[in-house]
Amino acid sequence: MLLISHRGNLNGIQSDDENKPDYLNFAMQRGFDVEVDVRFENNKFFLGHDYSQYETNSDFLLNKKIWCHAKNHEALLALNTINAHYFWHQEDDYTITSKGFLWTYPGKKLLTSSICVLPETANYKKIECLGVCSDFIERYKK
């Protein structure tokens, strides 16, 4: 099963640390993939959920463990240009990432090919899918 840390979180939401490069690197060093929020402004990439917080570069975003959540349309276009692994969604039940993964909105029906997003916010009786993206990703490590 693919295990994806949501914004670098391992054992709960740490809002002051989310999307910080060092925080993301720590999660990757622990063996997890990470979902990061990416913005593009003034020809530069930034990490940050609600606004541009941490400047970054394409080399960081091209790490095979990084799943880029485009937060503005400029980021969507720029991530496509550099061939990063990215996706865009708002409240769609499903979206397909640029590498062909099925990103499933929290609480929506899981398919065997789904990435289950934030299962802690939904009432899934059983999680049978390709991967999980969670703020509590350590729970899923076997």
Q: Please, how many domains?
A: 1
Low-confidence stretches: none
Shape by Cα distribution: globular
**Spatial separation of the terminal alpha carbons:** 10 Å
Which value, in Å, is the CA radius of gyration?
14 Å
| Main pleated sheet | 10 strands, mixed
Structural class by helix and strand composition: alpha/beta
Strand content: 25-35%
The portion of residues assigned to helices is: 10-25%
What series of H and E elements makes up the topology?
EHEEEHEHEEEEE
- Overall pLDDT level: 96
Number of helices: 3
Number of strands: 10
Oligomer: single chain
Description:
- The chain is an alpha/beta fold.
- The chain has one domain.
- Helices cover 15% and strands 30% of the residues.
- It has three helices and ten strands.
- Strands 1, 2, 3, 4, 5, 6, 7, 8, 9 and 10 form a ten-stranded mixed sheet that branches.
- The mean pLDDT is 96.
Please outline the helices and strands.
Elements: E1 2-6, H1 21-29, E2 33-41, E3 44-47, E4 54-56, H2 58-61, E5 66-70, H3 73-81, E6 86-87, E7 94-96, E8 102-104, E9 114-117, E10 131-134
Parallel strand pairs: 1-2, 1-10, 2-5, 5-6, 8-9, 9-10
Antiparallel strand pairs: 2-3, 3-4, 7-8
